[in-house]
TrEMBL record:
Gene3D superfamilies: 3.10.450.50. It comes from the Bacteria. SUPFAM superfamilies: NTF2-like. Pfam families: SnoaL_2 (PF12680). Residues 11-117 form the SnoaL-like domain. It comes from Lentzea fradiae. This is SnoaL-like domain-containing protein. The lineage of its organism: Bacteria, Bacillati, Actinomycetota, Actinomycetes, Pseudonocardiales.
Length: 130
């Protein structure tokens, strides 16, 4: 069994918080200077900016559910861990649409179990379509 700070547990706990509407707690799992990039958008720096970026997507949803499909990890030079996860995201949008979209996350998690970087890839066009 993996420990709560094992990288996969960190990622799964993070998404469980987001999926349950606890964005503030999820963002608390990031370092103060976290770098977050959504697909082809410009990166944002810091927890506050990361929270605003995530909020822009979550505000369109009544529910969201992330599932890790495939997992890879490797040690980072600084003692943390670099991870790559293929994910599926189910969106129940406020406009009544239901979506099930693929995505991919590249992240760096420090030795204390906090995200220092997240690069989130997926086509969010259907989420923002009216």
């Amino acid at each position: 069994m993996s420990s709560p700070t094992a990288p996969r547990s960190v990622v799964e706990n993070y998404y469980a918080l987001i999926d349950s509407g606890r964005l503030g707690e999820a963002v608390a799992m990031m370092t103060d200077d976290v770098k977050l990039t959504f697909a082809n958008s410009e990166p944002v720096l810091g927890r506050e900016a990361a929270q605003a970026s995530l909020r822009a997507v979550l505000d369109r949803c009544d529910e969201i559910l992330h599932t890790v499909v495939t997992w890879f990890e490797r040690p980072a030079a600084d003692g943390g861990t670099e991870v790559m996860a293929e994910i599926r995201i189910k969106y129940s949008l406020k406009n009544g649409r239901q979506l099930d979209l693929p995505g991919c996350v590249f992240a760096t998690i420090d030795a204390a179990g906090a995200f220092t970087e997240q690069r989130l890839y997926g086509d969010l066009t259907p989420v923002f379509a009216e």
